[in-house]
Write a structure and sequence with these properties.
Shape: globular
Helix content: 10-25%
Largest sheet: 6 strands, antiparallel
Strand content: 35-45%
Strand order of the largest sheet: 34-35-36-1-38-37
Length: 549
């Protein structure tokens, strides 16, 4: 073969190889690279979903603990004693990650957020790459704690006695955090003396990991009006709520850009309004460096009963309840573009119940809507109206119906002797003797819709957690809770991949946490799937009592 032919073949091979590499790089950029970690993770979650839903898989109540203070759960960690004790829920036996001495009332934690490391970013400290807990104390301290040891990693003083910060929330999850004060209210004596209080709320905004101060602002009645009852920040929108049901939306980023007087960094020395100190250090705290001097441009406003207002769907829609008590339980779904009511946009369960039905946009980002009543769950979708592409229609995607096959609610019954008895009342739709939906949630990693349904006859209440296909609503798995479920108590249920957690609040501030873990059981009727709860073994670990099943 001649040298030219060999060289030409090499160049052709090089061009083919280069094109192949180009295609691989393009596919990788689009998320199609077969050996990418994300692909492997999705495949693993798909396998886990199949294991969770197969018939031989059971969820066993492995241990239980009780507390005299609220119990919180975040990503495999159970927090007790006002976040002074942290227990790993991953192992079959409770593993205490840390146990701190009991804190004083002045160190009480008001609120907390779990902070997780962002992917693909260089961070200044090795501790930033591990999960941490942001907590807010009653004395206006913002602390960043190690999620595994409870060690204080960062400490920021927010403000003096001029305001009491109480609430933590995300503006953008895991990126921008908002710390909100309680509403400022003058003492009765001061109000009677005619003293006016113009500042209603304070908001402090932080970028997280690394934790950095963006700014602090006041919500002033001179700017926003006298009837402001609450404020919130979400996805770059400042939401202001009023006593007459009005909800107003403002561009939060535009407020920063227009009204920020001077940027500050944490630890920076400052001279502000006659005060000299360091930003975020005691006793000065944070400067209020965003002064809103004029009403910001209004993005949107709407009236809704009890300020209930939600935005979602595609194209953007919002859900409200008309601002009259007689319309409670009636939901209007309207276009955000022009406030036009969608076709079939008035949704009403027409149920007679003590607890109201509720509605919200599906958290799976599909744009669907979930409407939950006592015995019916409707998953709705937005679709274009035929012959009118400018209008959207609300249509049913699928329904989930409570099991009330054995429910008999006849107005007239006949006794064994032949006497006719007429009932003077009918059962409510959420009567505890009938199976009633109490909780509906979405497990995003396994793409499962979970529901908790309860039936209570007398003092004995039975509940079960069901997993449904998120796409079609088909029942895939049912898990009975072994503990009795009292509908008059407050309950929380967490389904986190292979773990189910039930937190119950009983009267007199008694809290219980029941931990269920996935096990593979080849027997048809194992103890983990029966309503009969075996007698627990009581053990003490780290000064805390646990019940093992």
């Amino acid at each position: 073969m001649c040298p030219q032919a060999v060289a030409g073949g090499r160049r052709a091979a090089s061009r083919v190889s280069g094109a192949h590499i180009c295609r691989l790089l393009t596919r990788r950029a689009l998320g199609f690279y077969a050996r990418d970690a994300g692909v492997a993770h999705r495949q693993n979650l798909g396998l886990l979903r199949k294991i969770v839903c197969q018939e031989s898989t059971k969820f066993k109540n492995v241990w239980t603990t009780h507390s005299a203070s609220p119990i919180a759960y975040e990503r495999g960690r159970i927090y007790l004693d006002n976040y002074q004790c942290c227990i790993s829920s991953i192992a079959q036996e409770p593993r205490i990650l840390y146990q701190k001495p009991k804190c004083s009332k002045s160190e009480k934690i008001e609120d907390a957020l779990l902070l997780e490391c962002p992917l693909g970013e260089m961070l200044p400290s090795p501790s930033d790459y591990k999960s941490s807990l942001i907590v807010l104390t009653v004395q206006n301290w913002l602390l960043r704690l190690s999620a595994d040891s409870g060690e204080i990693l960062e400490k920021i003083y927010l403000a003096g006695s001029c305001c009491k910060f109480r609430y933590l929330s995300w503006d953008t999850p895991q990126e921008v955090m908002v710390v909100k004060s309680a509403q400022n209210k003058l003492p009765v004596a001061a109000r009677q003396a005619g003293i006016q209080q113009s500042v209603l709320f304070y908001l402090a905004v932080f970028q997280v990991l690394p934790l950095s101060f963006i700014g602090m602002l006041e919500i002033n009645k001179k700017i926003f009006g006298n009837c402001v009852t609450d404020v919130a920040v979400s996805n770059g929108i400042l939401i202001v709520m009023y006593s007459m049901g009005m909800v107003r939306l403002y561009n939060f980023q535009a407020i920063f850009e227009q009204f920020m007087e001077q940027p500050f960094a944490l630890g920076q020395e400052f001279n502000w309004n006659g005060q000299v100190g360091r930003v975020g250090k005691y006793p000065f705290g944070l400067p209020c460096n965003i002064k809103i001097t004029d009403t910001p441009p209004l993005l949107f406003e709407e009236c809704s009963l009890e300020n209930a207002f939600q935005i979602g769907g595609y194209p953007w829609h919002y859900i409200i309840t008309p601002n009259k008590k007689k319309h409670r339980g009636v939901f209007h779904i309207c276009s955000l573009k022009d406030s036009a009511l969608a076709k079939n946009g008035i949704q009403e369960m027409k149920c007679c119940s003590l607890e109201p039905d509720w509605i919200y946009f599906h958290p799976d980002m599909s744009g669907r809507i979930i409407h939950v009543g006592p015995n019916l769950i409707k998953v709705l979708k937005l679709k274009e109206v035929k012959d009118n592409t400018d209008q959207m229609e609300i249509a049913e995607d699928f329904l989930i119906v409570a099991n009330r096959e054995n429910c008999v609610n006849n107005a007239v019954t006949v006794t064994a002797s032949g006497r006719v008895v007429k009932k003077r009342f009918n059962l409510l739709d959420d009567d505890p003797e009938q199976e009633t939906f109490k909780i509906v949630d979405y497990e995003d990693e396994l793409d499962l819709l979970s529901t908790v349904a309860v039936t209570q006859i007398g003092a004995d209440g039975k509940a079960h957690l069901d997993f449904h296909c998120n796409e079609h609503g088909i029942l895939l798995k049912s898990i009975p809770f072994l503990e009795s479920w009292d509908v008059t108590y407050s309950h929380e249920v967490y389904f986190d991949k292979d773990l189910v957690l039930h937190i119950e609040q009983k009267p007199n501030r008694r809290f219980s946490c029941y931990v269920y873990q996935m096990v593979c059981d080849t027997t048809k009727d194992g103890e983990c799937s029966s309503h009969k709860k075996p007698k627990p073994a009581v053990r003490k670990k780290g000064g805390r009592i646990f019940e093992y099943t």
